[in-house]
Design goal:
This protein has 434 residues and is α/β, with parallel strands linked by helices. Helix content is 51%, strand content 9%.
Length: 434
């Protein structure tokens, strides 16, 4: 007889704050491909644009979607797929390097340069002269600070050591970041050209000598930049990706950026696609129902497997279904959990996590799920204004949104989810609000 899973192990496996890294063998067993219920294989499209259509030419792609819908996991899957095909992939979370409340194009380009220099040490340490190093040296001299020189294990005066020193100087110092921007911004095209010529192109040449197909940089979490206003009135996402997108799109390697979902509902969408020369890819919710309200069996089936895989990662999909009684009091409890998530991956894990906290033993009951849903629903309702309630009723009735700030706020607040089917995009309210 199959033993019941360990409650603490399952709890840790369902942590909604942890991104699933499919490059790690233990975590790969948790992964369920949800493309069949998302309206298409977005990750496969990103992959094909690099490996099939433009393996030898730089590409720039944009990925949008609700925060928590699974973009980071899919970027990790893209990384694994590209590495299997011989590409060198640098994945990094921009929120660990950058201030999401105050960003400029130069900050992003410097973060990219730092990541490349730390990952491809032999290239960056060999770069000890040229425009890029000279610009960084001058910027370093201009930044007035009492912080001593940073100790590095790179060659003295190399590109890597200069980037490390600037990063150390400006970390947690908005005043110094401002000084750096004042110097860099009027010279941003010169910096970009030097970055391509003196770091990225030599790096690609070295990688190809080693038998690699090319260099891919995946920059995650830029969708989390705050909706602050620049002094001249532009929102931060519009400024970075619309006004300055022509800079971000001109790197000499393959690049994938995550971008805020709000840009797809903006009047600036046409300018965004012109700046990057591409249409953004959107990772929608996993469909748990159809437009007419009927439950969508394929989507619910995949979400069941996602839950069961966290407890039984080594079992086959068929075997997992026979083990449902080890986790839940009855199959209907699992089905309700999946439906209540609205197909939002992190919401599903958050509800399950909370349910485990309440019950602390398997099998989990319908009562603990009801309590977890009720608490989550009440928190959502507290933040909804009377005007938004009226808009939510309209979305529930018409399955669409209008292009204005009020509806964009509903999407950004995850009161409204976007789904895809054969007829295109449609919207509905978070099931917990029903």
């Amino acid at each position: 007889m199959f033993p019941s899973p360990d409650i603490a192990t399952v709890y840790r496996a369902c942590n909604p704050s942890q991104t699933l890294n499919v490059n790690h063998p233990d975590e790969r067993a948790y992964y369920i491909n949800l493309a069949a219920a998302r309206g298409g294989d977005i990750t496969g499209e990103l992959d094909a644009n690099i490996t099939l259509f433009s393996p030898n030419e730089p590409t720039c792609q944009l990925l949008a979607g609700h925060i928590g819908c699974g973009k980071s996991t899919e970027l990790r899957r893209l990384q694994a797929s590209l590495q299997d095909r011989g590409f060198y992939v640098i994945y990094f979370e921009s929120s660990q390097d950058l201030d999401m409340a105050d960003l400029d194009v130069g900050d992003i380009l410097l973060a990219i340069a730092r990541q490349v220099s730390e990952n491809l040490v032999e290239v960056s340490d060999a770069c000890t002269s040229g425009t890029l190093v000279a610009m960084l040296e001058k910027a370093d001299r201009l930044l007035t600070t009492e912080i001593p020189a940073v100790e590095t294990d790179g060659a003295s005066g190399s590109l890597r050591s200069q980037l490390r020193r600037l990063s150390q100087k400006t970390h947690g110092r908005p005043d110094l970041r401002g000084q750096l921007r004042q110097y860099l911004e009027p010279r941003i095209q010169t910096f970009l050209d030097a970055l391509n010529r003196e770091l990225l192109e030599p790096a690609i040449a070295v990688l190809r000598q080693q038998g690699k197909q090319g260099l891919v940089i995946a920059i995650d979490n830029l969708d989390r930049i705050e909706m602050t206003q620049k002094p001249w009135g532009r929102s931060q996402p519009e400024y970075l990706f619309v006004d300055r997108g022509d800079r971000l799109s001109k790197l000499s390697c393959h690049v994938v950026y995550t971008i805020p979902l709000s840009l797809l509902f903006s009047r600036e969408l046409s300018r965004l696609t012109l700046a990057f020369g591409i249409d953004p890819k959107v990772l929608p919710m996993v469909s748990v129902k159809r437009r007419d309200g009927r439950r969508f069996a394929p989507g619910l089936s995949l979400l069941r497997q996602m839950v069961l895989a966290r407890a039984f990662p080594q079992q086959s999909p068929q075997e997992r279904l026979t083990l449902v009684p080890k986790l839940f009091d009855r199959p209907q409890t699992l089905d309700l959990l999946c439906y209540a998530s609205g197909g939002h991956v992190r919401n599903l894990l958050r509800l399950l996590h909370h349910q485990i906290e309440k019950e602390r033993a398997f099998p989990l009951s319908r009562e603990s799920l009801d309590a977890a849903m009720r608490e989550r629903r009440d928190r959502l309702f507290l933040s909804i204004t009377p005007e938004e309630r009226t808009l939510l009723k309209r979305v529930a009735r018409e399955k669409r949104i209008d292009n204005n700030d009020a509806y964009r706020t509903l999407v950004r607040s995850m009161f409204v989810f976007e789904y895809r089917d054969d007829d295109g995009s449609w919207f509905d309210i978070n099931p917990l609000l029903q």
